[in-house]
Amino acid sequence: MTKLDKYSKISILWDVPSQLPWALGSSPRATGQRTHQKADRSVLDNRRILLIVSGGIAAVKVPDLIRRLRERGASVRCILTRAGAQFVTPLSLAALSGDKVYTELFSLTDESEMGHIRLSREADVVLVAPATADIMAKMAHGMADDLATTALLATDKPVIIAPSMNVMMWTHPATQANLATLQGRQITTVGPGAGDLACGEVGDGRMAEVPEIIAAVGRLLRKDNRNGPLARRRILVTSGPTYEPIDPVRYLANRSSGKQGHAIAAALANLGADVTLVSGPTHEPAPDGVTLIRVETAIDMLKAVRAGLPADVAVCAAAVADWGVSNPAPGKIKKGAKPPTLRLAPNPDILATLSQLSRGRPKLVVGFAAETNNLLKNAKAKRAAKGCDWIVANDVSPGTGAFGGDSNTVHLVTADGVEDWPTMRKQAVAERLAARIAEALSA
Ligand SMILES: Cc1cc2nc3c(=O)[nH]c(=O)nc-3n(C[C@H](O)[C@H](O)[C@H](O)COP(=O)(O)O)c2cc1C
Known about the structure:
By secondary structure, the chain is of the alpha/beta class. The protein is built from 15 helices and 23 strands.
């Protein structure tokens, strides 16, 4: 077997397919949608969401939605329609949102204290989830016969709806015409998806899953972040490891967790950039407000990166495997007396490819150098060899905890020299790098 360096591993799954990690739902591919951990400094942090809950069965998912939004630092204030209250109680929404739940248009106290207009204006975004066929129809026709529809008509904030209904209701020409009207007015929709519906039928109409709704709200808020220093800048970020197949069940991989790359994508989005994150398999949650493209191999990562051009900036934080197996077996290699011999072939060099593009090269190309020896010497040599503008050099020797850990000690190598940054949390490294990128673009 080919000798591999100590940071690579051959992931060998010897047994029946049920032992594959994704069969158990534990692989990054299976869980990579979004985990329920607290996201660091989300685009939702400190944002105010007016959540309108209308009367669909999917209202039962709203408590989880509120919890996940608040985990990301958002504050949530709910308006519950009369029909919505048949599915979820005002008390549970109040407990989870930590705020009063508004239900009545003609409430003397609310109107004097708050008013339907202030309610809709004090939010950064208005989210309708679930959005019934009924509320969509009322919105499309400008009706305002309850607190929810009045607030929707009175708002000056971006509105996003998560429709949810029976497939026949969804495909009905009336609903589709209402949808077209709403989209024509720049109202954003998330979902619905296809699948088993609560009514027992199967088809389109299922409310988007909570992580999908949160990602869509994040994108909307980022779009709305028109004053950020990176507004209108397109930035490509790569993150995570690549998996290079040996056969359909085994692969070569490395220890990259994707934490640093994902944190950079989030930090850039928080400054208003339009970020496309091309990521190998990781367990990291998809950053809010970022377009995430999932890939496995280095070849696929390069394809996705090329498809993501043009971009103003590229940050190549992925730990792309230097080699792939040149002859992956089409079927599972059987365990025999003699172990198989792997022939490796060099993978495309994504950083060099981007840095040396003759047309459409990003203005700023940033690479990463993970080294165990002669860190700065190797990083400077890498910068020259690849033709990139900056290298973020990090020591990944055993004991530094850089791979998979939450902190990183990096040095920024530019044409002007080397900046030594103190040991920081990966999120802080990401924020500092994003700020440096903003500064460089404005210079
Ligand atoms: C058990 C039950 C489930 C319902 N589920 C949905 C649904 O998923 N989507 C929908 O558009 N309407 C659904 N409806 C119908 C709405 O509740 C009804 O159209 C109501 O007037 C909506 O009011 P609202 O839009 O003000 O909340 C359901 C009704 C019942 C009785």
